[in-house]
Amino acid sequence: MGANCVTRREKTSADPKELTEIETAMGSGGSNWTAKQNKVFENALAVYDKDTPDRWHNLARAVGGKTAEEVKRHYERLVDDVNKIETGQVPFPNYRKSAHGPRGFCFIDEEKRMRSLRLH
């Protein structure tokens, strides 16, 4: 690998145990949430803050198909996930460095790079 090589990172497979924990958290303990419900939930959190009377009922009504208790549990898990991320308890995905560019080329010097691009 030359000093001028373009590098990229390739994702390695994640630990199955970590995936199970993430899936459990995202599913909120058996209560499945769609991507649309999650988005509506996130937007509704901005409207119904902690000082809003009947916050969980309002959030449940906004999301649709969820009880106030399910919404509250989902929020608590979200807060827990954010705390774990902020304190470094959730590992970042492992990436491997590659000495090759996007198409498998390693540009050793500018002249070769220009030739490969046909811009010389």
From TrEMBL:
- Residue span, SANT domain: 28-83
An example of a GO molecular function for this protein is: DNA-binding transcription factor activity
Q: Which UniProt keywords are present, listed alphabetically?
A: Nucleus, Transcription, Transcription regulation
Q: Which GO terms describe its cellular component?
A: nucleus
Q: Which residues form the Myb-like domain?
A: 31-79
- Enumerate the PROSITE patterns for this protein: MYB_LIKE, SANT
Major location (coarse):
nucleus
Report what the protein is called.
Answer: Protein RADIALIS-like 3
Taxonomically, which superkingdom?
Eukaryota
Subcellular location per UniProt equals:
Nucleus
